[in-house]
Amino acid sequence: MKNRTLRTSLLGKALVPGAVLVLALSGVADAHTASVTVASPGPTIGPGTPFTGVSSHADCAQGLVTGGGADQATGDNRAGNGNHVMGVSPSADGVTEYLGTPGIVGADATHWLAFGGSGSNSSPAFSTTPYAMCLTSNGIRHTLVVMDKAAGPSVGQTATVVVATCPAGTRLLGGGARATPASVGSLKPIASYPTFADAAHDFGRKAAADGETDPDSWAAVGGIGGGRDDDNTTYAYAICTGFGVDMKHDTTTVRFREAAGPTEASASQVVTTGCAPDDGVLLGGGAAASGGSVTTTDFTKAGSGGTHLVGSFPSDADGTPAADGSGTSADWTADIHAGGSPSPNTFSDVWALCLDVQDGRAG
Length: 363
Prior knowledge:
- This is Secreted protein.
- This protein has a single domain, classed as Proprotein convertase subtilisin/kexin type 9 (Jelly Rolls).
- 0% of the residues lie in helices and 45% in strands.
- The protein has strands at residues 20-22, 33-39, 44-45, 53-59, 64-73, 83-91, 103-107, 111-118, 127-137, 143-151, 159-165, 172-180, 188-195, 217-223, 233-241, 251-260, 268-274, 281-290, 308-315, 331-337, 347-356.
- The strands form 3 sheets. Strands 1, 2, 3, 5, 9, 17, 19 and 20 form an 8-stranded antiparallel sheet that branches.
């Protein structure tokens, strides 16, 4: 069971009646449709020893993955301070990571990876549950995976921002973040969010705000506490529509919430946002443990190097994780943990990315 000494649930807009959106225009022979289903196999136990990691995967039996997340069980004692998300990212086969040369690294991915890591504490209660968002659409039949990466962070109490941007003529559908290696116990991704590769957003250092439409990039932020290592790497992933997919009548909308905290040692906090009825279906989401004001200023770390993510996943409006096979999730939840020390000036951030299809084309 999670240690949620401090819990705040900031609810999003009204729940979409099902995560399946079907729009048909009168007189149009071939209606453009989009539906999203959640896939999750349940928890993978571990890591059971300090300074190690565990991987798990969720697989789309139908459709293409547009995003995904992870939810961790941390136990109910101080050992839970050491359990953190190490990554959420797409995969071609459910095993292999996209870690090579930056750029377009894959197409039509149908699997989602979730990674958990441990610091100096570990517990048999640790586990990681992966979630994949599986899109079926007669308009979006192909997707691309774009990856960017950067060395770092390698100096204690610092962060590294990396941004993956969709190619011109494509549209962002979701994204993820990853940090390696797991053997550096204080290293972890502390943010994963939609953004824009423009000056107004400082080319991804400022996150997309609530109500902004059609972001083109996904950012990842790697954070580190007191540990150091020269091989630390932060990866950002953007999932984009394939080339030639006509999206000019479709809209992606960002929903965002931010809450102060958690600041007390060993405390966690949950924040939730979601797609409004007019926003369409939930494609995926993101989360951050930040220094606040992430949509108006460049990203800053929380007040402690130990603050981390223990969850970023599809849910209901109360923050309950979505079930495998669910077609009803319209909300996204972030679960932020302060770690073993007080964390002043800490904020919890959550994003949902929604897709509204507007006409009767088959792309």
